[in-house]
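Hi R.,

Here's the chain you asked about this morning:
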Amino acid sequence: MIGFNSCKESKQKAKEEVVEEKLPNIVFILSDDQAWTDYGFMGHKVIETPNLDKLASESLTFEKGYVPTSLCSPSLASIITGMYPRKHMVLGNDRVLPGEVRESKAQWKSTQRPKNYKSVIENFRKWNTLPKLLKEKGYLSFQTGKWWLGNYKNGDFDYGMTHGDPNRDGRHGDYGLEIGRKGMDTLYNYIDLALEKKKPFFMWYAPYLPHSPHNPPDSLLQKYLPKAPTEYVAKYWAMCEWFDQTCGDLIDYIDKKGETENTLFVYVCDNGWIQNENDSSYDKISKRSPYDYGLRTPIMYKWKGKIEPKQDSLTLTSSLDMVPTVLSIVGIEQPKNLDGIDILDKSEVEKRDAIYGEIYSHDFNTIEESLYYRMAMTNPYKIIVPDETNKPNEEIKLFNIYKDPTEQHNLAAELPEIVEGLKQKIETSWNE
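And here is the predicted structure, written out as tokens:
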């Protein structure tokens, strides 16, 4: 088995075995707006996620995973490129130019947003994406679900559901958002196509789940209504189980096709969510925030018989590690611009002393105009540094995220040396 290789020789041997053997299919499963706490295997007392619980038990599961930013568009762009938002420059969901007035939000999204976002997409296309890199090994790549960057071809996918046409509501997934909510047939057809062509495949399964609108099947809603403090919470909890059911459907289909032992599953959530009890919105310390309820997610790697299952509650990892880890597994040389590491390489994990994050405005323009926070996560401390220009009245926060996972106690005043050291780490990271 591979996973936390103890030396370069064993790592090279594992790579050679992959090259000699049949290349694994690769399936990215991406949740959408779900807190790191909201799974059975992460300890939630009410939400039932039996399929993801099973996946976690069969995976190298990192409980302390992070995305670099807590908003969907930049988070997804980082997952597919392996780079921080400050590099790929997808900083938020909508690009709004200085002085621009949005009298009608719906009209602006269909007319002005595509014009503003054109340069963002053009810049994004300069970078390598995982589908583009996998072409070297003959992979077919498929996009389903959430995708913010126009047509699926902008991510170098061979096939996809998202057309990206602004005249047909092509902003953040369009037809792709039907996957999961309206069945799985398109995804199954893609898998069948790859098997027919005898090609390894990369599948991007990023359904609009448990994302709002929270309109779960009635059977699930009735299950959670008696258990939840309000109907709003019951709906969100039911959405989490609905998402879990679709993940089970996907995993079962691959198993039915006899491809389980030849498939690498990678799981992550794009950003967190705390459901408000008295309305349909989210708590300000979750999505779009620098706190762990916005950034933290379990990250899982399953390859039956190849990656040893383990639930790791200590190691810090990032969604930025997904691309370099996959490339290492399939024997593709990593571009130098990647910001993550091969998380299966023990020596690389031991050398890492921090992972980083950055939060921008939802309506962004330049880094200077849009940056809100920068973060560094270490064992055991996490620092949140507000931007002096855009968040001038906020204080630096320091938390021991191992003893205080819900970030209740700000230690910045008590530990000034730790604060200064982590601030310097952030500056060094940005200057590299």
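One quick note: The mean pLDDT is 95.

Cheers,
M.
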